[in-house]
Specification:
Elements (H helix, E strand, L loop, with lengths): L3 H22 L7 E5 L5 H13 L4 E5 L4 H9 L7 E4 L2 H18 L1
Parallel strand pairs: 1-2
Antiparallel strand pairs: 1-3
């Protein structure tokens, strides 16, 4: 999911459902969503993103990656596309992305 507004809307809808579910069966907290952000956003953008992530914590983890919005957008959505913020909203995909980041980090060491 690309874009701050789309991510915010989806997280809010999911949050309402999760709150109802937690009341019923007492599920524990876990990270199930990942917000990836490019490194070329404005201070205002990062402040808004931080508020969004904090509001939906602990199920949402935010990461700023070493890539600008043109590189991130082109990589994920095709040449010439821009992406400052990506919401990964499937738990298996979140796990794969986090494991990939760890692998890349370990290769650089």
């Amino acid at each position: 999911m690309r874009g701050f507004d789309n991510a915010s809307e989806i997280l809010l809808l999911e949050r309402n459902g999760i709150l109802k579910l937690n009341k019923q069966d007492g599920q524990g907290d876990r990270i199930s969503r990942l917000v990836l952000m490019s490194n070329d956003g404005s201070d205002n953008f990062y402040n808004k993103a931080e508020k969004l992530i904090t509001k939906h914590s602990p199920r949402v983890l935010g990461c700023i990656i070493e890539s600008d919005s043109y590189e991130l957008g082109s990589l994920l959505f095709g040449e010439g596309k821009i992406a400052k913020l990506i919401l990964i909203d499937h738990k298996d995909a979140v796990s794969r992305v986090l494991l990939s980041i760890i692998e890349i980090k370990n290769e650089k060491v």
